[in-house]
Amino acid sequence: MPELDDPRTDPFDVARLAAAHLASATGVERHDIALVLGSGWGGAADLLGETIAEVPSHEIPGFSAPAVPGHVGTTRSIRVAGENGAPDRHVLVIGSRTHLYEGRGVRRVVHGMRTAAAAGAHTVVLTNGCGGLNLDWAPGTPVLIRDHINLTATSPLEGATFVDLTDLYAERLRQVARAVDPTLAEGVYVQFRGPHYETPAEVTMAGRMGGDLVGMSTALEAIAARQAGMEVLGLSLVTNLAAGISPVPLSHQEVIEAGQAAGPRISALLASIVRRLDDASTTTSVD
């Protein structure tokens, strides 16, 4: 089996192997939508529909067990019943998100996106827990990602691969989300490398650059998803005020607790949004 970390290996070959494994393990030949559940969002999977199969993520080529508390270690295939005569759809809920700070390389970080596309997904919903810069967004506030700033000093794209990111977080999908909840705010997400939290000066910099949310995931995955031809919807849960804005020191426990408190409400919101996503895709793959 080709090793994902070997520079001689085409990462898309490993993604196709992973997709074939999922098709065999779940009995579902094609998945329509992919879902990555960050801190606080995990309960949405239980509200979507019938779980067809759960696959330990470390058994799927290119994946490994989660390294972060609060993240699940399984990938689920869920059948979502069609409404008003529409056909059923299948959602691939990707477990074991890999973060860049784990040191496993950017290919591992975005492998879930490439696998989802190889499994047939036309749309991916990326969620996360993050720090907020806007004092009006109390912990527990869900925010649509309008755009991002990538401060990781890396990219998932290799070689002369030029991909347009103008409408990376699709306005069409954000309209679907706002149809479910018109009160949803929008913001610009800034991905730092981590695993340390941002300093107050870095948060100030992010704000002056136009950022509203800071975290350690999502941006690299969104870029890879666009390269693979998927539409992207991004949702952040403000789990805490960012450093220098928050009057108290930051902790991962705070993130987990805020996610747990908001979990039932935001999970119901996310499930309602996913059920409204249709099969039309406006993005195209760029090689």
TrEMBL record:
EC assignment: 2.4.2.1
Taking every annotated instance into account, which residue ranges of this chain make up the domain Nucleoside phosphorylase? 33-275
Pathway info: Purine metabolism; purine nucleoside salvage
Q: Which Gene Ontology molecular-function terms are recorded?
A: purine-nucleoside phosphorylase activity
Instruction: Tell me the function of this protein.
Output: The purine nucleoside phosphorylases catalyze the phosphorolytic breakdown of the N-glycosidic bond in the beta-(deoxy)ribonucleoside molecules, with the formation of the corresponding free purine bases and pentose-1-phosphate. Cleaves guanosine, inosine, 2'-deoxyguanosine and 2'-deoxyinosine.
Which NCBIfam families does its entry note? PNPH-PUNA-XAPA (TIGR01697), PRK08202.1 (NF006054), PUNP (TIGR01698)
The text of the family note is: Belongs to the PNP/MTAP phosphorylase family.
Subunit structure, interactors included:
Homotrimer.
Record's protein name: Purine nucleoside phosphorylase
